[in-house]
Amino acid sequence: MFDATFPGYTPAYELRRMIGDKELSPVELVEATLRRIDADNSKLGSYITVIGDEAIEAARVAETAVMRGDKLGPLHGIPVPIKDLEGVAGVRLTHGSVPADEISDTDALCVERIRSAGGIIIGKTNTPEFGHAGTTENTVFGPSRNPWNLKHTPGGSSGGAAVSVAAGMTSIAQGSDGGGSIRIPCAFSGIYGIKATQGRVPRRITSEHSWHPVNNSSVGPMTGTVLDSAVLLNVLSGPSPDAEYTTINEEPPDFTTALGSGVRNIKMGLSLTLGGAVVDSEVANSVLKAAEVFSELGAEVEEVDFRPKDNEDVMSGFLDYFCVRGYAAYGNLLKNPDKAAQLTDYFRENLENGRACSTTRYISALNLIGRCRNYTQNFFDRYNVLLTPVTAVPAFPINEPPSKIGGCVVTNRRWGFIPFTPLFNLTGNPAASIPCGFSAGGLPIGLHIIGPMCDEKTVIAVSAAFEKARPWTEHRPNLSVI
């Protein structure tokens, strides 16, 4: 049933059905969404920019199409927020960065596809500076806050998008993932999200960096339900003549057809450490209980030592690659003293690390990527999916990443809580975050489901089987206290 106070707690697929059956007006839905955002955005920090007038006008056009009996797209009349790293024509684009604040000339390719499917762009969600952190704080707007505990981070870099869904503002949101930036905030915020195979969701060529053969970042869905993610992934996926070099040129499958497949006889590898990472006991226990659910559903679950290299080496190589790519794209900001002074500490540190990285270390990082891709491909010759935690800990207080995890000192606090996600940005494999439990403090915990290249359907099938066995949408943050 549609709740106008919390419109995002009705799944998008149900809202779309109601709109098509003339039970709900797109104008009514958009107005309810804007009221919901207005009520709590100042406390939650989900949206940097809200485009209410434009959204209402688009909703009126959508309503006219319904009344005319036009053929409607899969997102017709559904409000969709866009992460503020992607352009929306005529709308402010901050990148979460004071010196990079601008107005977009054109829609990003993902925005074009969402509009073509009938989606209504509602605003731009909060992100750390250029997406360069696993939490969401910047000096443009301030931090995003976790709806389950406002003192805690919702994760990042798609933190504002996660908050929009978790707080019932919208049913779906567009995110992007270059090191875990969809999966981390989904885990911390208790929602679902999937990073597709590298190249499945195209991005438009915008610079020389669009030709890089290892594209670690991918646009993807963040939603309350698995079906909503499958629908949005259908919309976002597929080749484009304007797309980057790494785009998959074959037409994608219909991801919604995977939902009823189940997991019987699916062979799953389970790794709690991914090559030696330390994990909080509450996270480990929740993941183990989730694995037991899959066993009960007929899957074959086996603990494995998934170790292309030691986790510390993988993280070191990822950061070298990530920071060098960041410096190549944005290093000019360091050359201007006025702009450099406006950068956040974490982004400046990443740029400086990229500048300092030797060619030998960068080549070693590329060699690591090749090794990890080969190892992972061989693993999936024997297993259908890999299960790990998404993060090493539940969400922590804003600007206070853990200094110890499982009694062990964390050597790099900015990155030490995410030892599980970056590897699969290097390999390019599809990977999802699915709610699987709560900490003693009432904070969500995420299960990481990784599949073979180009096999998002298996990841979605496994996710849907768990969702059916252990529904999570009935668990909602207590928003009456914020």
Shape category = globular
Low-pLDDT stretches are: none
What is the CATH topology assignment? Answer: Amidase signature (AS) enzymes
Structural class: alpha+beta
How much helix is in the residues?
A: 25-40%
> What's the order of the H and E elements?
HHEHEEEHEHEHEEHEHEHHHHHEEEHEEH
Quickly give the CATH architecture. Answer: Alpha-Beta Complex
Q: How many independent structural domains?
A: 1
Topology, number of strands: 15
CATH superfamily membership: Amidase signature (AS) domain
Provide the gyration radius in Å.
21 Å
> How large a portion of the residues is in β-strands, by DSSP E?
5-15%
Spatial order of the strands forming the largest sheet: 6-8-7-14-15-11-9-10
Indicate the mean pLDDT.
98
Biggest sheet architecture: 8 strands, mixed
Distance between the termini: 24 Å
Report what the structure shows:
The chain is of the alpha+beta class. It has a single domain, classed as Amidase signature (AS) enzymes, CATH 3.90.1300.10. 37% of the residues lie in helices and 14% in strands. It is built from 15 helices and 15 strands. The protein has helices at 12-20, 26-44, 52-68, 109-116, 159-166, 183-189, 226-236, 281-296, 311-330, 332-335, 337-342, 345-356, 359-379, 423-427, 456-469; strands spanning 47-50, 79-83, 92-93, 102-103, 120-125, 172-177, 192-195, 218-223, 267-270, 300-303, 385-389, 404-405, 408-409, 431-438, 444-450. Strand 14 and strand 15 (444-450) form a beta hairpin. Helix 2 (26-44) packs antiparallel against helix 3, helix 9 (311-330) crosses helix 12 (345-356) and helix 9 packs across helix 13. The radius of gyration is 21 Å and the shape is globular. The model has no long low-confidence stretch (mean pLDDT 98).
